[in-house]
Design goal:
- The protein is an alpha+beta fold.
- The chain has one domain (39-311): paralog of FGE (formylglycine-generating enzyme).
- 20% of the residues lie in helices and 14% in strands.
- The protein has helices at 2-16, 18-21, 40-43, 96-103, 124-138, 148-156, 304-311; strands at 44-46, 52-56, 59-63, 79-83, 87-90, 143-144, 215-221, 230-231, 242-245, 262-264, 273-274, 278-280.
- A hairpin with a 5-residue loop joins strand 1 (44-46) and strand 2.
- The longest helix has 15 residues, at 2-16.
């Protein structure tokens, strides 16, 4: 009788204290991590225009690619980076419908794709204006672009392979030019356009389309990586080009690698350029651009390919 009462007490205690009795979650590699007694509302949320966000935990990772990674570029020197604070990230790229809700227009070339397809043909400056208006509508100042380091950390989700999915990337996993796969990997489909966000499997942190669909603008000015271990790097205070990550529907597989870096003038608009946003969960040292005039006008680098060829000391790199 005493045993039965004891068992009943344990069951009731578990019901009232579910966090302490829950099974510890497993990481993708099968390692056990401590259970975190956080309410679901602290780990994810949806804002007023339907953007879904998940929290990315703090951590340390190897940013860039090892010297023996196939198709790597010389600006991907591998180095250790610590992301010291958790942050929220949009689970998908910003959609045409979300852009129209805030901006009242749709600049995309692929309008027929629909409201659930990523907005494209937006410049870095355009993204800053969108974020400024979204912050004002939501009564906050915490929405922003991701830093380049945050972007790669979120894309990798604990992996160290060329892609989150491994050494190869199939066109069942991402939207890119499948005629040009990685060495030793099978070819696939070339769709020649964007597709609705979330059409492919997410990574372990629930993020969709980190490889392909549209290039994603980051907050940083482009530069060569500094040497040594970096904590919460935010890039230089000025520069000529802003960073883009992830590859696009137009890109070869190599451009969609987790470590691959691309760059463009902050006013450049192409139907391969889009973005996703982050939300700061705690105080962070980020250089915001609250209004467009503080970052340059939308006419800067309007014909970016011509400007890069004529006016830049750095040669233009085609985004294939």
């Amino acid at each position: 009788m005493l045993v039965r009462r004891y068992q009943l007490a344990v069951v009731l205690l578990c019901i009232l204290s579910s966090f302490s009795c829950a099974t510890a979650p497993q990481k993708p590699g099968g390692k056990i991590q401590a259970a975190e007694p956080a309410r679901p509302s602290e780990k994810s949320f949806t804002n007023s225009i339907g953007m879904k966000f998940v929290m990315i935990p703090a951590g340390t990772f190897m940013m860039g690619s090892p010297s023996n990674e196939p198709k790597r570029d010389s600006d991907e020197r591998q180095h250790r980076v610590t992301i010291s604070k958790p942050f929220y990230i949009q689970t998908t790229e910003v959609t045409q419908g979300q852009w129209r809700e805030i901006m009242g227009n749709n600049p995309s070339d692929f309008k027929n794709c629909g409201d659930d397809c990523p907005v494209e043909k937006v410049s870095w400056n355009d993204c800053q204006e969108f974020i400024h208006k979204l912050n004002r509508q939501e009564g906050t100042n915490k929405y922003r672009l991701l830093t380049e380091a945050e972007w790669e950390y979120a894309c990798r989700a604990g992996t160290d392979t060329p892609f989150y999915f491994g050494d190869c990337l199939s066109t069942d996993q991402a939207n890119y030019d499948g005629n040009h796969s990685m060495p030793g990997c099978s070819r696939g489909e070339y769709r020649k356009r964007t597709v609705p966000v979330g059409s492919f499997p997410p990574n372990a942190w629930g993020l969709y389309d980190m490889h392909g669909n549209v290039w994603e603008w980051c907050q940083d000015w482009y530069r060569d990586y500094p040497s040594g271990h970096a904590t919460d790097p935010i890039g230089p205070s000025s520069g000529e080009f802003r960073v883009l990550r992830g590859g696009s529907w137009f890109s070869y597989a190599r451009r969609a690698q987790s470590a691959n870096r691309y760059w463009g003038g902050p006013g450049g608009r192409f139907n391969r350029f889009g973005f996703r946003i982050a939300m700061t969960s705690v105080a962070m040292k980020i250089r915001p651009c609250p209004v467009r005039d503080e970052c340059g006008t939308s006419n800067d680098y309007h014909n970016e390919e011509t400007s890069l060829l004529k006016n830049s000391s750095r040669p233009f790199i085609f985004d294939k």
